[in-house]
Amino acid sequence: MKNDYTDNIESCPIAKVQKVIRGKWPMVIIYHLSESHVLRFSELKRKMPQITEANLTKELRTLEAYGLIHREVYREVPPRVEYSLTAIGTKFIPVLEALETWALEYEAAQIESQS
Amino acid sequence: MKNDYTDNIESCPIAKVQKVIRGKWPMVIIYHLSESHVLRFSELKRKMPQITEANLTKELRTLEAYGLIHREVYREVPPRVEYSLTAIGTKFIPVLEALETWALEYEAAQIESQS
DNA sequence: CTGTATCCTAGGGGATACTG
DNA sequence: CAGTATCCCCTAGGATACAG
């Protein structure tokens, strides 16, 4: 049988890409890379103090596999690795901007509803 | 500065609001409600055949608690319940549109990279 | 500096059955 | 029709330690 795929994919484009950006960290990582353009592992870690190194590595590898970020390794001592957005990763920025706009509206609505 | 998100996650609006729309279903539900404006429980279930009734209920309750959707109960026989977006829920639509646009670009990029 | 390797746990989310 | 009630599995993701 065709399974899960058929209905959601055709009726909802959102469901299609949901797995790519799902989770606690992917959009945050993309956000920081969109702001700084290029970041090293330790710089990303500093910008997200609450993620563990193990998970940061995992998230970066996943985003790389999905084609959203590029990993450039410089074989030096000490080692240097730079992360940046790919073309398709850069095209995700408007989504973040829309989300950021909504976040501010949402925050304002929450405050208003308390009074 | 006010909008410096580099220090910690709490000052990043994306990270802040991420829990509201996180998970497999919330954005999909909002998408269907944005398309249809008003949907009954069974209609939502039909648009998302893969979600279980238990989880659909849970997701709807959560989105309602977050203020994104409105639940209107008509005490009839048989019972009728209609779900719709609230004002702040409606304001989320631009995010979905941006995401949808990106989804198409992402899909195209994937196909292109295969050749 | 840039990661691995383990371990561990909360909860997201599926399956199935039942109800007012 | 619009849900509850259970059960249960899995993986996201945190903590900690170690390595090249």
UniProtKB/TrEMBL annotation, chains A, B:
Keywords assigned by UniProt, alphabetized: DNA-binding, Transcription, Transcription regulation
An example Gene Ontology molecular-function term: DNA binding
Keyword Transcription regulation included in the entry's annotation: yes
Top-level taxon of the source organism: Bacteria
Domain HTH hxlR-type: 12-111
Keyword Lyase on entry: no
Database matches in InterPro entries: HTH_HxlR (IPR002577), WH-like_DNA-bd_sf (IPR036388), WH_DNA-bd_sf (IPR036390)
Protein name (record): HTH hxlR-type domain-containing protein
